[in-house]
Amino acid sequence: MATDRRLQFFEESLQLIHHQGYKGTTMRDIATKLKCDVANLYNFVKSKEEILDISLFSINEEFHDGIDAIIESKHTPVGKLRLITQLYVRLTHEKPYEISLLVNSWRHLSHKKKKKFLAERTAYEQKVQRVIQEGVDVGEMKALDPVLATNMVLSAMRWLFDSFADQKSDWNPVEVERQINEFVVSGLGV
Amino acid sequence: MATDRRLQFFEESLQLIHHQGYKGTTMRDIATKLKCDVANLYNFVKSKEEILDISLFSINEEFHDGIDAIIESKHTPVGKLRLITQLYVRLTHEKPYEISLLVNSWRHLSHKKKKKFLAERTAYEQKVQRVIQEGVDVGEMKALDPVLATNMVLSAMRWLFDSFADQKSDWNPVEVERQINEFVVSGLGV
DNA sequence: ACTTTAGATCAACATTTGTTGATGTAAATA
DNA sequence: TATTTACATCAACAAATGTTGATCTAAAGT
User: Fold this and answer.
1) Residue A21 covered by a domain
2) pTM more than 0.90
3) Is A134 a domain residue?
4) How far is the CA of A43 from the C1' of C3 (A)?
5) Which CATH number belongs to the domain containing residue B136 in this structure?
6) Is residue A40 in a domain?
7) Can you tell me the distance from the alpha carbon of B152 to that of B139, in angstroms, rounded to the nearest whole number?
8) CA–CA separation, A76 vs A82, rounded Å?
9) In total, how many domains does chain A have?
10) Nearest amino-acid residue to C9, taking CA and C1'
11) Of A105, A115, A165, B139, which is the most buried if we count CB atoms within 10 A?
């Protein structure tokens, strides 16, 4: 099922969706990029929404699995936080167009799927929150509101997908990772 | 020209655009909200894009003017940075749906207008960058990459519009402002 | 040799969407 | 009183958009 052409179809689709938005990308746009007829696309997915659907929940799962592994590990709160930002930076560098879906295009999921997505997102935000809360409790971090702190930390990295997707920018992801960690850790640190 | 009905039209339009995206919001959606006919909307704007256009460049100007005033003031780099985050938080609290346009909907501007918007955005990002660069130079801030630092600082607040637009969340903007400043200043501080 | 499979083609469709023109009305303004 | 102003209504259209069905081809698997 994962043929070259099919992979190319998803790749081009996600790039277009990143740049033009989900609603702003038509099946005809995608077909033009692939130099084929529109009808052809329905050999790969049974509807436009399936492009979003499949790609979004796939990257979402990958991210959640990573978070879970970190949460269950035996690190200090600060150590866990470092690993979380590391995970986020790496995943974003690897798959900027997929992350773009998590940031922007999730709004266009069907009602049911959107509800599912939001529930999952809330769940992992709470996991990160608990790490920060623990950090505050053991005196490793300063007493900011954990919800607010979580939003700041995650949001502080949310520009990366745009930058990595851009041809012109060529950040070294390891260096980015280091500086983000420095910012976040001393931003929350006592 | 700024009648009640006209103001209501823009208000409802921006709320819909925030929740459904620009392309996802139809003129008929807006008309339904206003309980009037579609054709009626063209008494207020001459095209759909004008809704985006007018609202986006209006909030953009407001923000840029604020930034400029801060840049020209006689504060230390850290002082200026505090004022910048303060400005951002206040403006976002006042006008979350307008800020939403700056974050998301600008992509759907016409080619010409988009170019103009991006040029302006780059210009003010560079202004913030120079503040941070200055902070590094005088030893007030740690030596992170100024581009990266700027992105992190601005991005760290980019979740706020979503939160302020949401009925359920009721952050106290002054407290939010304080905590964001604490995070950002100690995140960049030496 | 037979059949499945991945992909391509072409014509056609029902809806959705932005937009227009012609017209009406009630209140404010002159 | 005459007229401008703000807003409303109705019918209609051209273009864009997601989707389908029927058919074809060439390669891969059996």
Assistant:
1) no
2) yes
3) yes
4) 20
5) 1.10.357.10
6) no
7) 19
8) 10
9) 1
10) A37
11) A105
